[in-house]
Amino acid sequence: MASLAGDPVTQLRGVGPKLAEKLAEAGIHRVEDLLFHLPLRYQDRTRITPIAAVREGDDVVVEGEVRIADVAFGRRRSLVVRLQDGSGTLTLRFFHFSAAQKNALQAGTRLRCYGQVRRGASGAEMYHPEYRRVEEGESSVEDTLTPVYPTINGLGQQQWRNLCGQAVTRLRGAAPPELLPPLADFPIGLVDALSFLHAPPPDAPVAALRDGEHPAQLRLALEELVAHQLSLQDLRALQQREGAPALRQGEALLQQFLAGLPFSPTAAQQRVIGEIRADLAEPRPMLRLVQGDVGSGKTLVAAAAALLAIASGYQVAVMAPTEILAEQHRRNFSAWFEPLGIAIGWLSGRSKGRARSQALAAIASGEAGLIIGTHALFQEDVAFQRLGLVIVDEQHRFGVHQRLTLTEKAGAEVGRPHQLVMTATPIPRTLAMVAYADLDCSVIDELPPGRKPVDTVLIDNKRRDQVVARVAAACSSGRQAYWVCTLVEESDVLQAQAAEATAEELRTALPQLRVGLIHGRLKSAEKDAVMTGFKAGELDLLVATTVIEVGVDVPNASLMIIENPERLGLAQLHQLRGRVGRGDTASHCVLLYQSPLSRNGKQRLGAMRASNDGFFIAEKDLELRGPGEVLGTRQTGLMEFRVARLPEHNHLLDRVQAIAGEIQARQPQLAGPLVRRWTGSSQRYAKV
Ligand code: ADP
Ligand code: MG
């Protein structure tokens, strides 16, 4: 009985070459891999619930006799089956059904059904339950909770249950090895945890399983998080094995630059600049994340880093996720650097023809010292002469791999450039530990002096008139205001139309005000003109789409209205609100919501009203929307775990760090097998 669990999946009953291929695509090659394909949740089919005892929302098994089966012609034609047991009657409703199906459901037929109970026109109902005919007294309800697996590659529940079931049966003979150091305080080991979670007994605590709190889940979540941590650290080690240029010049230039600013850097900015300076002086690549609340002055820190690299004779690339943000950086950096004699290159998706080829030439020849751009910087024909530092703003919209692509363009003999990543939104500490384990972290934990918290209120759109009056009052006393229109649609066109309509409405309602309009469809020059006008006080009210989330800095604007704030995530709302509260008057933010608000919506907007602290808000966002949304990686699957859940399993994270550290120090040979076990083929690191 050697390592049966290590056998190829084709050893299992019913697995031919075709199925094996499908499984391989899902990263499942060996029987052992199936053990780590864990259920998402469970159904309880271990007992039959009397009809009188079912409650709305429950997933239950009921059994009874068909009293009548008939087609009802309501708003939608449906087959309605009345099922009765000794205790009561339940209606089964089928919107799609065949004649044969109807005929098989004659009065007197005994059925066992599984489904969710809902409240319908005739009391308790089930829509499209799973059902089968049974004989009176037939026993054999399931003897374990029924696992529901993630359905990958079109494989259905029955198939997964069958395959994982077979894998669990073999587990006893040849268990996968424990790879974690002994965990004295965990009551359950790897093998028991795996077999429990694939087939929990009928008396298993359903609520704990649902909430991810069962000891078996905690044991595996711990291991999964350790594996994730190790894989990121591995990625880091791989990069650091390559050399990077040691950038040790530029102190004088930096001092000259700082002395020319109208303010002095905060202590936090100075500390972070110091951390970066120390990293850059090393002959291996810096991998550093800078976090700081909105308005904490991350751009200045980035500029300081750029100066040090440029003065040391290297190029610097600044990459932003949107055109607007890139343009904002272009404006800032031009104003700061051109007086110092540094040439700035620009490359966006809209750079075409001659402008583009000139930019490419300046990048390739080294004439451009600082290059600012969007995703366009990743394109194949972009080649740098001597790229020494990559600065990525708002990392969470770029994948790890995009960042790496850029660092491969450094130019001959340079090695890997240093990397500085800035997040526009604070990331909860716990999540940062997991998501950015490949980076060192600096926090700008101080705002420039004189910032006042923004007073935030929630107002129902039914009282829109009052809000319009409030705008009038603020503007007539010399203040300026933003009115932000939001749409869920990603479409620029629809967003622009909504903003245009709102601008029209407000121009009519407030003829005495100068109303400007900005959205993503305007040409750069038009956007510039509107922004410059607003900044110069030539406009009182600026109607905008969420494009102003980044890149707008007008201290005299002290009122912001956000329409339909319930549609946005907390991080984005916090970014938007960060556009006011930059001057010396008290600022206000009105969240003009559409009632009724969902429970979650109420909680989110409540958090906005309660706090101005970006880190607090980020924690709330994580709690209410989950890590994928907070990091903007939901689509990339970057933060999708099998058992681990954040923030529910935050309490494990200190342990995770300690164990990962111990493995690296004492048993580095375990890291590879652990990572492979949990990240499948670990494809996403394969390219590095
Ligand atoms: P964020 O961290 O949100 O990217 P920015 O870098 O855009 O913030 O800075 C916000 C504003 O604060 C800018 O107008 C910037 O010039 C200003 N600022 C940055 N650092 C300081 C400072 N130390 N003192 C005063 N104002 C500062
Ligand atoms: Mg910024």
Number of structural domains:
4
Which structural class should the secondary elements be placed in?
Answer: alpha/beta
What number is the mean pLDDT? 87
The poorly predicted ranges are 681-688
- Under CATH at level 1, the class of the largest domain stands as Alpha Beta
The radius of gyration computed from the alpha-carbon positions, rounded to a whole number of angstroms, is: 30 Å
Bound compounds, please? adenosine-5'-diphosphate, magnesium ion
And the CATH topology of the largest domain? Rossmann fold
Main beta-sheet annotation: 7 strands, mixed
In short:
The chain is an alpha/beta fold and 688 residues long. The chain has 24 helices and 22 strands.
Describe, in plain words, how this protein is organized in 3D:
- The protein contains 24 helices and 22 strands.
- Strand 6 and strand 7 (123-127) form a beta hairpin.
- The longest helix is centred in the N-terminal third of the chain and has 26 residues, at 215-240.
- The protein folds into four domains: 9-43 and 147-200 and 207-213, no CATH class; 51-141, Nucleic acid-binding proteins (OB fold (Dihydrolipoamide Acetyltransferase, E2P)); 246-444, P-loop containing nucleotide triphosphate hydrolases (Rossmann fold); 455-611, P-loop containing nucleotide triphosphate hydrolases (Rossmann fold, 3-Layer(aba) Sandwich).
- By secondary structure, the protein is of the alpha/beta class.
- It is globular and about 90 Å long.
- The strands form four sheets. Strands 6-7-4-3-2-5-8 form a seven-stranded mixed beta sheet, with no helix packed on it. The chain has a seven-stranded parallel beta sheet with strand order 12-13-11-14-15-10-16, with helices on both faces. The protein has a six-stranded parallel beta sheet with strand order 17-22-21-18-20-19, sandwiched between helices.
- It binds adenosine-5'-diphosphate and magnesium ion.
- The site of magnesium ion has 3 residues, from helix 10.
